[in-house]
Sequence to fold (290 residues):
Amino acid sequence: MFFGSIPALVTPFAAGRVDEALFRAFVAWQVAEGSNGLVPCGTTGEAATLTDAEHRRLIEIAVEGAAGKVPVIAGCGSNSTAHAIALTRAAKEAGADAALHVPPYYNRPNQDGIYAHLAAVAGEGIPIVLYNVPARTITDIAVETMAKLAKLPNVVGVKDATGNLARVSAQREACGPDFVQLSGNDDMALGFNAMGGVGCISVTANVAPRLCSEFQKATREQRWDDALALQDRLYPLHAALFTDASPGPVKYALNRVRPDFPADLRLPMTEASAASKKAVDAALSHAGLI
Fold:
């Protein structure tokens, strides 16, 4: 259902407002460059700063731009179950193919609470991709909890950003080989796919969509030497995009590759530091992007 290089899309702002025309052009570019899916309104898209109206509109534009060529997995996470359900309903009405959901952050529920929250959003009749990112949520969807969730008809996969490659095998055993596992870490995607993953919800693909797509295609075709060569070409960029708080570095990088795309962020996010920009420039040069 979902595979390959799936960018977690940045959100363009102009004078503090969402630039819908630029986002539409960005979506078209991503599809043309070979991305295998789109994730609007995720962490990289500064979803925490979006109004519900902006959130829905960005999903609508992504769906329109995808035009059925690639799936749209809409970020719909919230630490309020009622709000998460509302965002999921809006995404479904906008035509998204799936909703991406983190366990509740800040509240720090136990595993029973995590299960109940995610089971509630799964009841909305749209495929659910779990998003396990303990570094941001301070909670972890335990393998046992994921196995229970995988039994629900609408829970189809996970974006795993635990940074623990062994989880791929553990989740494969617990949830079955058809459970879609997507890496949430660009730098680990090679090992992740070798262990049974099928793709990556990617930050780097915002900047290098074609290279990321070619890398994922090489892993699907088990051309591991080609995949390793692309990993070596992209790795400095994977690292540089997290030398400061994301998405500051990736917006700077995108502006270097596409000057029409401003690097504006919404508070509390601020522009990348000078050291981060220097690392990004070196990595873009290494990858042959500038």
